[in-house]
Write a structure and sequence with these properties.
9 strands, alpha/beta, two-stranded antiparallel sheet, about 40% helix, Rossmann fold
Length: about 290
């Protein structure tokens, strides 16, 4: 089936299946024909690759991925779209649609079952409401994947890819850089969707580190301190880390030993500086902080 980015075709298809958009699911279907081919190419889909897609919608990106990859598995939470996808993908033989919630899916089991012997990539036009949770779930699970190439809200793209130590950086930016090397690939205007959202989007690619890049004694402690620091980002690092189970004296000593200014704020610290503080905290106070 072709012309899945044609507005009249989409309307006819959805009307035929009695489908109406559900705002809570963040459903915005692509009508810009240039976007999905670029995304499929960017994720490296080829005859040796299996691609996991989250939220296929009516299958526009799915078809582009299937034309390049060895196999595509797409997870769709809205059961009303299943008959739509059956129609739009009826001539595609290397694709499987799974009805389920990506936040509850056992990705490791899925990858082992569906993509044995293949390189694996994730490629998706993510609903805005699950962008950060799903990306963190994919990263923290340390799955055997090469990259995560996704379309997200433009503001979110900037935050996710911001370099540690810059003003735009947040706690999630540090986590993204810890697990991967992120980059913003291209922007997508709000007019590229039906219905059009109130914001522009961007496609990003997170190139996953195959092996850990940092010597961290406790990841749990590291990210606990990072969240505490950015939870009070207007305060100095000295004040924001006090109350995490550490006294002011202990925080001061850690910052001094790590050669981090007590007056610095969270966004001014690099990932390596946070790691140094966390490792010192682990050595001096254990992992139960």
């Amino acid at each position: 089936m072709s012309r899945l980015t044609d507005i009249s075709k989409i309307r006819s298809l959805l009307e035929h299946h009695g489908f109406k958009f559900t705002k809570s699911l963040g459903q915005n279907f692509l009508i810009n024909p240039s976007v999905c081919p670029k995304m499929a190419e960017a994720c490296g889909a080829d005859s040796q690759t299996g691609v996991l897609e989250i939220g296929p919608g009516i299958g526009v990106l799915t078809r582009e991925l299937a034309a390049r990859a060895a196999r595509v598995v797409a997870i769709e939470i809205d059961n009303r779209l299943l008959p739509v996808l059956s129609e739009t993908l009826e001539d595609v033989t290397n694709t499987r649609i799974i009805h389920g919630d990506a936040m509850e899916t056992d990705f490791r089991n899925l990858i082992e079952r569906e993509f044995a012997g293949l390189k694996v990539a994730v490629c998706a036009n993510l609903p805005y409401y699950i962008t950060s949770p799903i990306i963190m779930r994919l990263l923290e699970s340390r799955l055997p994947i090469d990259n995560i190439t996704v379309m997200v809200q433009k503001e979110t793209a900037v935050r996710l890819c911001s370099q540690p130590g810059t003003r735009e950086c947040g706690a999630i930016s540090l986590a993204v850089w810890y697990y991967s090397k992120p980059e913003i690939l291209f922007s997508v205007s709000r007019g590229s969707f039906m219905p059009a959202p109130n914001v522009d989007s961007a496609v990003i690619r997170l190139n996953i580190h195959k092996v850990p890049q940092y010597d961290v004694k406790s990841e749990r402690l590291l990210f606990s301190l990072i969240r505490a620091a950015f939870g009070k980002r207007r305060k100095t690092i000295y004040n924001s880390l006090t109350g995490t189970g550490l006294t002011k004296e202990q925080v001061g000593a850690l910052l001094d030993d790590a050669n981090v200014a007590r007056t610095a704020r969270a966004e001014q610290l690099t990932l390596c500086e946070f790691i140094k503080i966390a490792n010192l905290a682990y050595d001096n106070f254990g992992a139960e902080i």
